[in-house]
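Researcher: I need the complex structure. Ligand is uridine-5'-diphosphate-glucuronic acid. Inputs:
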Amino acid sequence: MNIAVIGVGYVGLVTGAVFADLGNIVICADSDTAKIEMLRNLEMPFYEPGLEDIVTSNVAENRLTFSDDTADAVRRSEIVFIAVGTPAGESGETDLSQIEAAAEVIARNINDYKIVVNKSTVPVGTGDLVKNIIDRTKPRHIEVDVVSNPEFLSEGTAIQDALSPNRIVIGAPNKRVAMKLIELYSMLEKPMIITSVRSAEIIKYASNAFLATKISFINSIANLCEAVGADVEEVVRGVGLDERIGPRFLRAGVGYGGSCFPKDTESLLHVSRKYGEEIAILKDVIELNRRQPLRLVKKAEKALGTLDGKTFAVLGLAFKPGTDDLRDSSAIAIIRSLLSHGASIRAYDPMAMEKCKKHLPSITYCENEYEAATGVDGVMVLTEWNKFKQINFARLKDAMSGDCVFDGRNIYNPEVVRNSGLRYFGIGRGTDTF
Ligand code: UGA
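Model: Output:
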């Protein structure tokens, strides 16, 4: 099939590359000429494992091209995916201006029947908005169907997630277009569900909000564990074995970040209020997540007396491992807070340092975890990169001048850390914290 993907951000680029890999002819289009130029030179605009390989091989096979001429991409395709950014507006609502602009381009360049597929995360009702924009601008005799097909991939595992999703949701306005999308996805051999457009739009937000709720819930339990001297890691083992609950997304830590959970919980709360059905639980989920990173700063203050004049090694800057994405990263919130208390930072992240230098130019960036730990009062692990799990505590201790390890992702066995002569501070590990 001939496919256009508008928007070469995370979702758009991965979607385009994967559809090309499945044998389709794909044009990834974006008005950002600099990004398109990079991609034509096979340079990836962000780090994602496996992305460069899949892009390179499909470009070589002539199935994948990049263009800054969105109008032309629309004219040459039967299916047009919209995968543009949907950032948060001022009061939590979703800014749909890029979606509206994409709909306008599609409308002005329709030359034949088109299936327009919304892949961006958009509030319920956006399918209708896109259809209305196209209908009022397009030549009258040409038909258009607008489908909602939310994406569930995660950063760091995006290619694998897109090639092997646990479900494919197709929110279709009629059977004919549903069948076409089923045909497109049939090679993946994964469960597909056909819903109304509005249900599909809600499925995306309900999924992300539920996962964010799971995280804030376990972080609340972790905070209680600290108060009563229990260990949240033991609690999660006991709770997660209940098959109705499951152990995933129950990792306590310094809170969730990224480009999705913070924005999508705010947006769902906003939409629910708009329709007079406020999902009140989300207010607590969001507020708890705002406070969670700062609890680690308070712990450091309690352990060291004052933060003024102290130096910390921060290991991990990205919002999660496997990515260089810093959007809403808890590590950034923690660093800013430490700096505001008069502390100095020596940071290391295997992938995200170049991007971080633009946000935080004044901190010291180091070559590895041991260099970062040199002469510091405390080490804070804020992203659970695998290499941090294998840290050599004897070497770490030798490098440090103090002895505090703040494990913001609970990746260490407190006994092992303490046996190395270091003090251990985790999340929700009450018995081990002080
Ligand atoms: C999330 C969803 O997991 C995807 O299904 C969805 O498609 C995507 O948003 C999206 O809407 O585009 P992503 O933001 O890439 O994916 O990352 P996650 O793995 O979900 O992690 C989000 C945050 O939650 C990270 O900061 C992570 O550290 C934190 N987290 C995750 C926890 O604190 N505890 C956990 O148990 C799991």
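Model: Summary of the prediction. The chain has a mean pLDDT of 96.
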